[in-house]
Specification:
Layout: E1 3-8, H1 16-24, E2 29-32, E3 41-45, E4 48-52, E5 65-68, E6 73-74, H2 76-88, E7 97-99, E8 103-104, H3 107-120, H4 132-141, H5 153-174, H6 182-196, E9 200-201, H7 203-212, E10 217-220, H8 244-251, E11 258-266, E12 269-271, H9 283-293, E13 305-307, E14 309-310, H10 311-321, E15 325-329, E16 339-348, E17 351-353, H11 360-365, E18 367-374, H12 391-404, E19 408-412, E20 420-422
Parallel strand pairs: 1-10, 1-11, 2-5, 2-10, 5-7, 6-8, 7-9, 11-15, 14-16, 15-19
Antiparallel strand pairs: 3-4, 12-13, 16-17, 16-18, 19-20
Helix pairs in contact: 3-4
The chain binds inosinic acid.
């Protein structure tokens, strides 16, 4: 049975956690395929709030096997802390599988992420400072250490000694920082190794045999399309591939193993960190969105930049991910506005762009073409079916479908699990039932 991929359509923080959580209830395997603890989602289950950064959502369900795939970068300290805190709350983490091929975030990666950002000054990317970029850079340079290296102290030590020499030179000579101590890192990481060893394995045959035996497998994207290293707003992107195609590489499955691709998008738009953001709202509207939407980062606590729904970016995401459907989250936040703007195109030097512009200069300097549509002011948090939504909200969702050429299957109207509106027969399949089709 082919799997299902769940991807962010915008710049991350679309509320993927809530949808993954709903899907996980009926899913046998949840596989993270990229990113690291730069991600974060908050999930409320049985009145309990869980903030997960690295461990896949599936861990919260006894029937589900959570998998950290080969494409993920792992800070073992953070992973163990997350496992401990889940265990302290009665969640069994023994089923967690960690790919031996996943790369390790090392202390020098954290240090480099911080000092490079500082050096970039006003050109900084606004990274989460979790060491993500430097770890993926070492992976590409083939000097990374992997989870499987933790299982062989000699190999770990030999690889570390090669790479640490270079990193220490860089830290000391370029950035004026103190060098890091090999022995200290070894002791620390070999302690992690002892605890992580039972979880480290080759995850790819396990996922393949799950798919072959008809089990449901969900590939859980972190970050989102516009932060994709190859297709996002480079250089203001993360260092991995959150798009659906990234699931094949990062989890080790073939393109034909994924048949349903759900794109998650907020009813408006947010972005953290630096970089162009054409549909960014004026400060007054942005503040309303920040407060009504609680737009502060789960991982860093940073206030998010807020804007209107960007249909150009969403169309681009629908194409890149071959989305089967869209789930729109936080529609209730827009109840604050009597009129709602939607960015339908960009304009640059007198030319209108309805498709994503071919180069960054246009994207950096374009102005948004907004369409203004009537909103609604009714409280929609208790809506459970399409007929419960006011006409303004229904029209808004229809306009999004039209602009993106993708059917909306579900609309979320609040943080609670039950606060979902199903778009009936137009949905490509029930969220929370038979997830992978
Ligand atoms: P990095 O992934 O920490 O290297 O950060 C690169 C860019 O991606 C920065 O603009 C971050 O703010 C952004 N970013 C990384 N992870 C997330 C996320 O989970 N949500 C939103 N933005 C993110």
């Amino acid at each position: 049975m082919p799997g299902l991929a769940l991807v962010g359509v915008q710049w991350g923080d679309e509320g993927k956690g809530k949808v993954t959580d709903l899907l996980a209830e009926h899913t046998d395997f949840v596989v993270r395929y990229q990113g690291g603890n730069n991600a974060g989602h908050t999930i409320v289950v049985g009145g309990e709030r869980y903030a997960l950064h690295l461990v896949p959502t599936g861990v919260l369900y006894d029937h589900c096997t959570p998998v950290i795939g080969p494409g993920v970068v792992v800070n073992p300290e953070v992973l163990l802390e997350e496992m401990d805190s889940l265990e302290a709350r009665g969640i069994d983490v023994s089923r967690l599988l960690l790919s031996g091929n996943s790369h390790l975030i090392m202390p020098y990666h954290l240090e480099l992420d911080r000092v490079v950002e500082r050096r970039l000054g006003k050109n900084r990317l606004g990274t989460t400072k979790r060491g993500i970029g430097p770890t993926y850079a070492d992976k590409a340079a083939r000097i990374g250490l992997r989870a499987q290296d933790l299982l062989d102290p000699k190999i770990f030590s030999a690889k570390l000694s090669v790479v640490l020499k270079e990193k220490n030179l860089m830290l000391a000579r370029v950035y004026g920082r103190l060098p890091l101590d090999q022995k200290e890192i070894e002791v620390q990481y070999l302690e992690y190794a002892e605890r992580l060893a039972p979880h480290i394995t080759d995850t790819t045959p396990i996922i393949q045999s799950a798919l072959d035996s008809g089990k449901s497998v969900m590939f859980e994207g972190a970050q989102a399309t516009m932060l994709d290293l190859d297709h996002g707003t480079y250089p203001f992107v993360t260092s991995s591939n959150p798009i659906a195609g990234g699931a094949c590489v990062g989890a080790g499955v073939g393109p034909r193993d994924i048949s349903r691709i759900i794109g998650i998008s907020k009813a408006y738009c947010t972005r953290v960190g630096s970089g162009p953001f054409p549909s960014e709202a004026d400060p007054i509207d942005a503040d309303v969105l920040v407060e009504a939407g609680g737009e502060y980062g789960t991982t860093t606590g940073r206030k998010r930049r807020c804007g209107w729904f960007d249909a150009v970016a969403a169309r681009y995401a629908a194409r890149l991910n071959t989305l089967s459907e869209l789930v729109i989250t936080k529609l209730d936040v827009l109840s604050q506005f009597e009129r709602i703007k939607v960015c339908v195109a960009y304009e640059f030097e007198g030319r209108r762009y309805e498709d994503f512009p071919p180069n960054q200069t246009i994207f950096n300097k374009c102005t948004p073409v907004f369409e203004e549509i009537p909103g609604w002011t009714e409280d929609i948090t208790n809506a459970r079916s399409v007929v419960d939504l006011p006409a303004g909200a229904r029209d808004y969702v229809s306009r999004i479908e039209e602009l993106c050429g993708t059917p909306v299957s579900y609309v979320s109207v609040g943080p609670g699990r039950e606060q979902m509106v199903a778009y009936g027969e137009r949905s490509a399949g029930p969220v929370g039932a038979g997830a992978a089709r």
